[in-house]
Amino acid sequence: MNMLEIKNLHVSVDGKEILKGIDLDIRAGEVHAIMGPNGSGKSTLSYVLSGREGYEVTEGSIRFKGRDLTELNVDERAAAGIFLAFQYPIEIPGVTTMTFLKTALNAQRKARGEAELDAVRFLKLVREKAKPLNVPDEMLKRALNVGFSGGEKKRAEILQMALLEPALAVLDETDSGLDIDALKTVAAGVNALRNPERAMLVITHYQRLLDYIVPDAVHVLSGGRIVKTGGRELAHELEKTGYAAYDADAA
Amino acid sequence: MNDKAAQIFAETYDRERAVLPGAGGWLARRRDAALKSFVEAGLPHRRLEEWKYTDLKQALEKAAFVPAPAHEGAVVLPDTAVASAFAAIDRHVVVFVNGRHRPDLSKAVRLPKGVELHSLNDVLHEQWVKELVERRFDDARQSENVVDLNTALMHDGAALRIRKGVRLDKPLHLLFLAADGGASHTRNLILLEEDADATIFESHIGGAAAFADIVTDVALGDEARLSHVKLQDEGAGAVHLATLRTRLAAKSRLSSFTLTLGCGISRTQNFVLFAGEGAQAHVNGAYALKAAQHADQFCVIDHAVPGCTSHTLFKGVLDGASEGIFQGKVIVRPHAQKTDGRQMTHALLLSRDAAMNAKPELEIYADDVQCAHGSTVGELSREAIFFLRSRGIPEMEARQLLVSAFLDEALDLVPHEAAREALKLLAAGWFADGEGRA
Q1: How far apart are CA B18 and CA B347, in angstroms?
Q2: Which of A132, A230, B159, B415 is the most buried (most CB within 10 A)?
Q3: Banded pLDDT at B30 (limits 50, 70, 90)
Q4: B201 to chain A, minimum CA–CA distance in Å?
Q5: Mean pLDDT of chain A
């Protein structure tokens, strides 16, 4: 069964249509990449999946595990298993990373009718997940994303994903602002989370990230539509030719 | 005189003059003079710069408070989180009901040698009491005038004197309960002699439509240390007027924190006078307001001598149609070199109908000083709320997390650890109660 089924999806922001009929199916265990030029609607797709306010579905449908996703609000979607790794993670002054992680995990467990984790079990779990991502205790004690370097912010995002164990992870330009070493660490963290029950949608402008997170399918988004779909080799092709051939205005 | 409320107080004074504590002595003469100058100045109103945002005259005219009755019978303290905020802390407790000391409800026993704690009326003959009551702080005359009203009508209060080098063994909790409506005028006096040390909690609770007029006069001797934590949460029909006046001698330290959960109209005044070099004052506070509450925090810090430090941070969250005010002034006198003065105020508006007025001021007449002030007013970040929700945190919980984080920066400055935790719980509970929801 498809984890995610998007049919003829039209989305408007402030009355302006950004997505103009997207069809996309992703099965559990698959990693799909969405590539495209700036302004093609990549981030809009990630936000509409997360349920962000202001992104209005005007036509079409999104089904997640067979369920109409648009019936759920932002936090309900998260508890149902959707995770968005932000291109620019938000700073939350005054809330330590540790407090934030515990609040988020327990809120999701509560929403699913599971018992909340006590402080001891939580601490053990978070340390176990943080270690391979090279996230030290000191970082967990700092306010979330406040004063974090670009690499620290992205590692913190992947730690959240590792802890929350979503069914569908949407990674929005996770490579932006990362040097090659940070990119490798982050990609290794993502790859460690690949498994037959989990699907991923990797949104990126550049092919570079896909050298490290190798996708099962690549889609080219342009002018609010998927204009081409192929295997991983499509990413390399795009790297050579650029997006000019897919320019919406030229088409 | 068209000041009806002032008229009521003047009539009360005429009626009670003969029976007010201290009749026939120095205090009676002081009361006469205070009433005279109070009536001449009248109640403060918005045309006075220091009262620009709080019309006490209008509020008191409207409410027309008569004197609060002496509540002689049994009293049950309200079963609220605010009333029991300090309950888990080992402390001395002195209870006032309708502004009158209730020894039967108080518990301050086995005080250390060198600690003298009395009802004000029992020590009126003492010289230190006279000196504190007669003291004037002339930096903010428009705000000081209301102290004259208190001096004329004060009928009770706590008097604490701690002798040289003595440390109060545990916090002293002054609990003021407005059980009935009406006006009460309370005067507390605190004298810490050289190198003495004390922690004082003050809480003001009760849902009655009362006018609580409290003046607390503090004198700190050389190297004395006072931690003062005030908590206020009163009824929608109540008017709260509290003034804390502290004179600091050399190398003494004041750490004062006020948590205002509000009432109809509240005004909290803090006057700090540095009289000896090397002293430090930390005057901080937080407030969380809702509905039609109005809270005015007013601070004047006078660096009259060199080498003193004053840090002030007030943070507030405003919901409903509430109104918050911060007015602060740091004065650095011409010879007060090496002054370190900082004053910051930040507010968060949770509703479109809430309003905040901030007026931080610096008056600097010396040239070798470090002074800074700043003020911000904002709202909860929608991006931050979205981010937290995208991780599965429901909206209300996300908002509460952000509000608590905002207030915690101020609450972290509460000078007593257990009190700090107690106030943080109250602040978090304020939102969780649904009172903090738009």
Answers
A1: 47
A2: B159
A3: very high
A4: 26
A5: 93
